[in-house]
Protein 1
Amino acid sequence: MGNTTATVVLIDDSAEVRELLKTQFRLSGLLTVVGDGANGVEAIGLAHRHQPDLLLLDLSMPSMDGLDALHGILTVSPRTRVVIYTGFESNGLADRAIELGATAFLEKSIPIEQMAHRLHAIMTDAAASPAPERRLEVVPDPADRQMSAEQDHAHDDQSVLDEHLERFREVFEQAAIGMATMTLTGSIVRANRALGEILLRKHQDLVGVDYATLTAGRGEQLGTALDEIVLGAADLVHLEHEVRGTPEPRHVQASIAAIRDEAGAPLYLFLQVQDVTAQRAAEERLRLSEERFRLLVDAVEEYAIFMLSPEGIVVSWNPGAQRSEGYRAEEIIGRHFRTFYPQALQEARHPEYELERALADGHYSEEGWRVRKDGSVFWAHVLITAVFDDAGQHLGFAKVTRDITTSRESQEALRQSEERFRLLVEAVADYAIFMLDPEGHVMSWNTGAQRSTGYSSREIIGQHFRIFYLPESQAERHPENELEIALSTGRYEEEGWRVRKDGTRYWSSVVITAVFNDVGEHVGFAKVTRDRTENRLAEEEREQTNASLAALNERLRQAAADQTQFLAVTAHELRTPAAVLRGSADTLSRHWADLGEQERIGLLAGMSSSADRLGRLLNDLLTASKLDSDALNLRPVRSSIATLVASAVDGARVSSKGVDIHVGEIPEVEVLVDASRIGQAIDNLIGNAISHGTPPVRLDVAVSGDTAQVRVSDSGGGVDTDVLPRLFQRFATGDNVRGTGLGLFIARELARASGGDAFYEPSTPDNSAGTFVLALPVA
C-alpha cells in the first residue's frame, strides 16, 4: 500500500462509538475515514459510493444488521475488506461470518487505542496476498504496545465499550433458561445449550439464524415486537409460538429484552425461551373439559342451572336460567339468589334455610313460587346440592330450577307423573347405569352401579369395563366381543356372572346399547346392569326342587308299580300253597281208604311244605309291617354265627329239596343279635339266591375287626343293572313271577336294626353272580 493511508468506512448504530473511532484513526495517521453509518442499509450505500479499502461493520443494528448487510456490501464493492466489529463473543459467530465473506472478526473488548494498528495490520496482511481468500481472522488479545502521547487520553474512552460488553456478559451468564443474544433485526448471535434443547437443534447451528424462521408463522408479530423495542416503545416483549420443524408440536414462550447504552440506544437483543408445551397441553385439556361442561349446561334450556358461592351469591348463569328468570348474566352474577324469592320468603330467611338444609343433608328440594325480573311469579321445582372438592372443602351449591307453572294446572296428572317418576328413580337404585367410551372405558357412574359392583366413581372411571368380568371371560375377549356386537347390531343383551370389587361373583342381566350423536358419530355405549343373583339362586333352587320332585315322583311311580307287583306276586305266593293245602286235604278226606301209605305220606308232606311256605310269607309281611311302624322289638343276645347259618341252611334244604347248597368253613365267633330275626334275614338271603339265582348256592362267613360277614352267592349272571339302584327297597324284584320283593328289604332293615348292614357286591371276573353280604356286629 506504500505510504498511502487506507480508506475506511465505519458502520455502528452508536454515534459515540463512531466518533471515538474516527478520532483514534485520525490521530494514528494510518487510516482515513471516508464515511460512517448507523445500519446495514447505509453500509451498502457507503460501500458503493466510496469503494473503501476497509469497512468496519457492527452486527446488532436497527433496520438491517451486519450479517444481513454483508453480502450486499461485497456485491457493490468486491475489493473491500470487511471486518466484523461487535460486542458479541466469537463463539459460533465467527464461522458464520466467514461463510458470508468477512475478512476478520474483532471484539469490542480490544482497547480502542489499538484499533487502528489492528486494522492496519489486517490490511497489510491482506495486501501481501495475491488473491483474497476471505478467510476469517479472529484477532487474539493484543500484546502491549508503546502508545504515543497523543493516544494516552483514549484509555478512558475504552470504558464505553467495556461497559457495553460487561452488561451483555452479565445478562447472558445469569440466565438459567434457554437464552440467546440477537441483533436488532432478530438474527441469533449466540445461543446457549438450553435453547438448543428446547428448539431441538444444536445450539451452534442456531448462530446466524433469523429467529423469525423458527416461529412457525409468527414472523410478522416478531418483526412488530422488534420494531417496538428498537423505537423505544417497549423494553420487553413476549411472544408465544410453535417451533417450526419439530417432530411433535412444541410451544415456547419467548421474552425479548433490549440491551441499551447509556444514552438509551439499543445495542442488541437478549432472548429468553421457555418450553410451555406441557403447560399448554394441560390448559387445553382443562379448557376442553370446561368447554364440554359449559356446552352441556348451555344446551339445557328447560332448566336454570347455575352455581352459588357458599354464601349464596350467583357465580354462574346459563341460557335456561336467563329464559326462566329473565336476567342476563351480567345483571345477576354477583347478586344473592334471594332475589328470586317473594318478599315474604326473603323476610322469613327461607333462601338461607334452603342452603343450610342442603349443606346439612347434601341436597335440598322443593316446589314453590319464584319471582322473575319483571316481577311476575312462576311455580318452580328447585333442587339445591352442596358441592365439595376432593379434599372435602365446601365450594358452594349447584342450583337447578325448572319452571313448571303450566303443568301445575293439571295437579292430579302431575301427581301421577311424579309418582311414576319416583317409582322409576327408586327402581333405578337396583340398576347399574353408566356410559362407556368407544373403547370400553368407564366414563360415568351412578349410585346403583356403586351398589352392585362396590366401586366408587373415583376408583372406576377411566378403567376398562372388562374389570367386571371373570378372568376366563377376559382371556376370551368376551367384553370386547360384546361391544363389537352392540356396535354392529345396535344393542347386546345377556345374563352371566360378573365380579365385584371384593372378588365376589354375582349373576347379572346386561344390556349394552351403542350411542351416537346427532351427526351419527359413535360416541360410546350405554350399559345397564342389574344384579339378579337372588333370582338366579331362586331359579337354581327351583330347578333343584323340580328335579327332586321329579325324582320323588319317579320313586312314587316305581313304588306304586312295585306295590302292584307285590300284590300280584303275593296273591300268587298265597294261592299256590293254599291250593296245595285245599287239594291235599280234600283228597285225603274223600279218598283216605283208597290211598296207599306212600301217597298219604306224600300228600301230608306237601301240606306241611305249603304251610311252611305260608308261614314264611306271613312272617315276612308281619316283619315288614313292624319295620314300617317302628314296632319291631329286638332282643339281642350272644349267638353263634355257625349255629345261625347251619339252621338257615338246614331249613332251606328241607323247603327246597334238591337244591345244591355249599357251606364254607364257619369260624367260631359270636354275634350280638336277635337270633330269630337274623335267622330270618339269612333265610331271606338264601331264599333269594335259590329263587333268582342259579345253583349251586354258596355260604361263607368272614370276620374283619368287629364285624362278621355272612356272604351268599350263586352261579348265575348277577343282578340286573336296572334293579341295582333299588335292590334293597321294598317290593323290588328282578322278575315278575317270583318273590314278594320284601326279602332283601327285610334282611337289610333287620341288619341295620342290629347295628350292621346288608349290601350287594357287584360281579367280578371270579364271581359272575356277585355276592350278597349280611354284616353283623361281633359280640
Protein 2
Amino acid sequence: MGVEGIGARVARKEDKRFLTGKGRYTDDMSVPGMKFAIFVRSPYAHAKIRSIDATAAKAMPGVIGVLDGKQLLADGIGNLICGWMIHSKDGSPMKMGAWRPLAHETVRYVGDAVAIVVADSVAEAKDAAEAVVVDYEELPVVTDATKALEQGQPQLHPEAPNNLIFDWQIGDPAATDKAIAAAAHVTEITIHNNRLSPNPMEPRATLGIYDGGDDHYTCYTTSQNPHVARLVMSAFYNVAPENKLRVIAPDVGGGFGSKIYIYPEEIVCLWASKRTGVPVKWTSDRTEAFLTDAHGRDHLSKVKMAFDANNRIIGLKVDTVANLGAYMSLFSSAVPTYLYATLLSGQYDIPAIHANVRTVYTNTAPVDAYRGAGRPEATYLLERTMETAARELGVSPAELRRVNFIRSFPHQTPVIMNYDAGDYDASLDAAMKASDWNGFAARKAEAARRGMKRGIGMSCYIEACGIAPSAAVGSLGAGVGLWESAEVRVNAVGTIEVLTGSHSHGQGHETTFAQLVADRFGVPIDSVNIVHGDTDKVQMGMGTYGSRSGAVGMSAVVKALDKVEAKAKKIAAHLMEADESDIVIENGELKVAGTDKSVPWFQMALSAYTAHNLPSGMEPGLKEGAFYDPANFTFPAGCYICEVEVDPETGVTKIIQFVAADDFGNIINPMIVEGQVHGGLAQGIGQALLEGVHYDPGNGQLLTASYMDYAMPRADDLPSFTVSTSNTPCPSNPLGIKGCGEAGAIGSPPALINAITDAIGNNRLTMPATPQKVWAAAHAAN
C-alpha cells in the first residue's frame, strides 16, 4: 500500500470545491436566453381532467408559454416505462398502466403534473401557474395497498383489475409447506416496512436546451446514470434521436436511488425548449420533492419461520404486498422481486424458502429503489423474525444465528443467489466483542436502578451488489445490461484521464478511482483526473446504484489499466533495449528488474506520442478502453449491534451504542468506506426511529410534505458509531471488492427495533418507533 494507493486513507480530492462553494450543480447552470419552468400539479389524488384553460396565464407578464398534456401527446412524446419485466406466477406479464409525462385525461396522485409554465423568472412562472384553470372531476381514492386489492375499491388503471400489477413467486412452495408442517417450532410475525422519502440534499433539477440550428438537444440533470437517461429518452420516449441528445449530470448532491430514474420533468423541459424556442430550467422545491420524488419501501409481509428440534431453520414462508404507488417507475418491479426475495436466505442455511409477492397500484407517489432497494426490506423481515424466534425459543439471539450460519462456500440458496465467499462468524464475533455483549446484563441492571429500560438488539445482514451478469439479469426481465465501461487516457506529459460510466453523487469517485491508478503506476493522484457524467465525453455506461461503482466500475478501469500497462511496458522495453517481461513499474518509473535502468513515466508517455522510437508496427498514443460484465453479484455482509435506553415515562429512546462489523472484501479507501457506513447508519436509524411518509386515507393528501411533518435524523439523534471491517475478498472481480454504500441502511433498522423491543418487553412495535409508539408499547407490555 502506498501513501495514495489502494488501502490508503486519502482525503477526498473533490471536497475542496464542495466545501468552498465551488461545486457545479444543475441549478448552477445558466445559458443565454434561459427561462424558468413551474409545473401545474394536481391537488387531487384521483380525478378526471375535464379541461385546462391557460388563457389568463398566457397573458401574464413574463410568460413565454403554457403547455399541456394534449400538446405533448400530439407531438408524439411517449409514456414513461418500467424497465424490468416481471411475469406473474400464471405466466401473464405485469400490468403496466400508462404514465404520461403530463397527464391529459386522469391524475392519479397529488402532484401529478398536468401542465408546464415557462416564464422569464421563477416568480412569474409561479404566478402564471396559479392562473391556469384546471377543471377536475374528483374520483374516489385508495392509498393502502392491501385495501386496494379488495373488490369494489377505486381502480387506477384499466389494465390492472383490482389494482394488481403482478402476483409473483420464487422458491418451492410444496417443500416449504412440508417443512413448516413437520417443524418443532414455527415463529409467525407480520412485518411492515414503512414508506420513506429519499430526501437527497440537492433537490431534483433539469435544464433542457434545444438548438434549432443543429436540431440537437442538451439535458442537464440530477441523474445517477446519464447514459441510461439518454437511452430511455431517445428509444422509448421519442424526445430525440440518441445521436441528437446529450445528457450531462454535473455535480449531484446525493441520490440514494431516487435519481436513477427518468422523471416527467426531464422529458417535458426538453420538449418545452423546442416548443418555446428557449432553454428551459426547472428546479424542484422541497415540497415538490416530497410529492413527486420516488418513495421507497412500503411492504406488508406475513412470515412463517420453521425450526427443527435443534433450532435449525428448516423452512421460511413469506407473503408480501408491495405498494408501488400510482405508476410503475423505471426499476420499481425489480425491487420487491429480484432485489428482495432473492435475499431472504440471509446469512442462514435454509433448505426451503417460498416467497409470494403481490404489487399494487395506489393513489400515492410512485415507489422505486431507495438506498438498499429490496435488501433492507429482506433483512428487516428476516432479522426481526430471527430475534422473535430466539425469544420464543428461549435461546440467545446470537447463538440462534450462529447455529444457522452458512459456513461452506460457494453456497447455492433456494432463491437463485449463489454466495461466493463469506465468514459470518468473524463479523458476529467482532460485533459482540466491540459491544461487550456479555456485559450487557450488568448494564441493564444499572439502568433499571435509574428507572430506565435498557435493551440490546442484533442484526446479521447480507446484500447483493454489482447486479450481474447481464445475461442473467436479462433472463430475469431486465431491460438493460449491467456491465460498466472505462477508458484510460495517458496524455503526452504523463498525466492520466479516466473516463468512467459510473457516476459520483457523493461517493468520492474522484479520489478512489484515482487511487486505483496511482497504485498501479506510482503517479500522484493529483495527476489523475476522473471524467464522468457526460454522454458526449464518456462512452456508454450504466451509472451508479446498488453499490456497483467499486465492484463493476473499478473493475472496468482495471481492465483498461491492464491494456495501458501492457503497451507502456512494450514502449519502455524498446527504449531501454530490454525484454518486456523484465519491466516493472514502481514510483512513477518503468524499470528493468535487477538493473539500474529506468525510464520516467512521463518520458514513456511522451515517446508514445512523439512516435519517434516505437516498436515496429505499434500505433502512436496511449489510450485504452474496456467493458466489464461481472460473473456474479458480490455479497457484502456483517453484524450490527445496538444498545438503547428507553425512558418509560416519555417513550424517548436513546441509542447508547451502535456497533457495525462489516465484511466489504478489499477496501480502496478506509476513510471513505467509514463515511459511507456512517451515512447508511444515519438513514437506517432515521427509518427506524423517525421517518415515515403518511397519506390521508380519505382523500390521498400527503400529510408529510415538509420537514415540519417528516422527521429527519439530526446529530443529537445519533451516537458515535463503532465500526470495523473484516475481509473475505470477493472472488468474482479482479479487485476483490464487495461494495459498502448501502450496508448501513440495510443492517441498522432491525438491530435498533430489536433493541427497543428487548428493552420494553413488547415485540409489537412498528417503524418508525416514535416516542408515542414506544410509550404505548411499553405500557401495553406492563
